[in-house]
Amino acid sequence: MIRNYNELTRLEMEQVDRANTIVLIPLGATEQHGNQAPLGTDAMIAGAMPEYIKTELSKVDPDYPMLIFPVIPVGFSVEHLGFCGSISFKPDTYYHMLYDITQSLAHHGFVKIVYLICHGGNRSVVDMLARQVRADFGVLPFVLASGAFFHPDVQATISPGNTFDFHGGEMETSMVLAINPSSVKLELSETGFRGPTRDGKKAIRFSGEHALTWMGEEFVTEDGRPIGIGGDPRGATAEKGRIILETSARELVPAFIEIRDWT
Questions:
Q1: Given pLDDT bands bounded at 50, 70 and 90, which one contains residue 195?
Q2: pLDDT category, 212, cuts 50, 70, 90?
Q3: Average pLDDT in the 3-28 region?
Q4: Is the sign of the CA dihedral 247, 52, 130, 214 positive or negative?
Q5: Residue-wise pLDDT tens digits, 243-261
Q6: In what order do the strands lie in the sheet with 140-145?
Q7: Which string of DSSP letters, residue by residue, matches 184-251?
Q8: Which of 15, 24, 106, 191 falls between 20 and 30 A from 100, CA-CA?
Q9: What is the pTM for the complete model shown?
Q10: Could you tell me which residues are beta bridge partners of residue 27?
Q11: Distance CA 58, CA 117 (A)
């Protein structure tokens, strides 16, 4: 049975089969997502994804043993601190906060822990954490990404002509429209482009073996103003967001089944 961690009483928690129950920890962020999407975009997605995952898992295992931990609403978002409202832990602060949570769970007998990455910037810290807590406490820490952004069904939601969809773009804005439409101000949207490097000639390369770690200010409007998002969000809709969330949850089901059966 999938339940919310914080809704259990102490007595109910004592009765949980903690050695075989997965604790899902959704990891969000509080950071700028352009003019149109809220600072809490990633935290909202982190809150919604477990419910979509619960729905998909119930189709294959109605008794799936999992507790959903409260969303961690702040993460490692230093790349966005140049924009008003963004909040970031330092890497060591974020690491030790998650370490302490994991240590507490391990102390009470939980073994299988899933860190659900709902902000890509959190991944590097969580990967290091997962290896360390496995060594220190003997837990089984799994790191899962929440968005199936390259799945064909998700890619099909991107509007024709919107050839570059990245942070704060059409897909993320659509997801928030599906979760909390009143928080989106689509009429204020501006398109974000990859800015030039310092020599003014080459576009920033932020993936691959010789990538430069990107900062939000390197994504600009057509006239060169820092906007911190990638692509044109104006084609976002709640229906597209629902497709993205449902597809992403469905794609995670095999991983969750494997985690359930891991010994």
A1: confident
A2: confident
A3: 98
A4: positive
A5: 999 999 999 999 999 999 9
A6: 2-4, 66-68, 22-27, 112-117, 140-145
A7: --GGG---BEEPB-TTSSSB---SSTTPPPP-GGGEE-TTS-B----B-GGG--HHHHHHHHHHHHHH
A8: 15
A9: 0.95
A10: 72, 117
A11: 21
SS3 79: helix
Spell out a b/e string for 94-109, using b for 16 or more CB atoms within 10 Å of the CB, else e: bbebbbebbeebbeee
Residue with tokens 């010994």: 263
Amino acid at 135: A
Beta strands 140-145 and 112-117: pairing type?
A: parallel
C-alpha dist (Å) from residue 175 to 103, 222, 241: 33, 25, 4
Reported as type and span, the H/E element at residue 22 is: strand 22-27
Superfamily of domain 2-147+246-261: Creatininase (3.40.50.10310)
The pair of structure tokens assigned to 98 is 């998650």
Report the mean per-residue pLDDT for the chain: 95
Measured CA to CA, the distance from residue 218 to residue 197 in angstroms comes to 8
Q: What tokens were used for 66?
A: 């999992």
Closest to 248 in 3D by CA, of 142, 164, 145: 145
128-182: per-residue pLDDT in tens?
A: 999 999 999 999 999 999 999 999 999 999 999 998 999 999 999 999 999 999 9
Domains of the chain by residue range: 2-147+246-261, 152-240
